[in-house]
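It is worth pausing here to work through a concrete case rather than discussing structure prediction in the abstract. The textbook approach is simple: state the sequence, then state the predicted structure, then interpret. We follow exactly that order.
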Amino acid sequence: MPRSPSKPHPSRLAAELFGRRGERLAAWYLRAKFYTIVAERVRTPVGEIDLVARRGGVTVFVEVKARRSTHAYADALAAVNRRRISRAAGYYLSRHPALAATTLRFDVIFLAPFRWPRHLKHAFDASQDVT
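Step two, the predicted structure:
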């Protein structure tokens, strides 16, 4: 008998909880670095943004990649869907025009057990995609 569409597979549920925990840890990490978290888990019709943060006059869109081992950093960076994030950021900025006037940046935070978070600033340039 097939699974009900309303009940996710237990492994998918575990992955979702692991990702959410990673996003919370990344938010605390950014706060410790004097960033202000503007929004978390922003869902738009064109994609999701894990974190929106501000520091100084810079608005930062952050993708969080939590992995179960440190060997997966390269794979995690390759898994970042730049087009989805930049489109979601454009949509978010259209709804928050005050932030559109600031300098924009796209960062990635990698998380792995027993390691400090790895914050990759200016992970990619999406200036042509964000309008």
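Step three, interpretation. The chain has one domain: 10-120. Helices lie at 10-32, 73-78, 82-95, 97-100.
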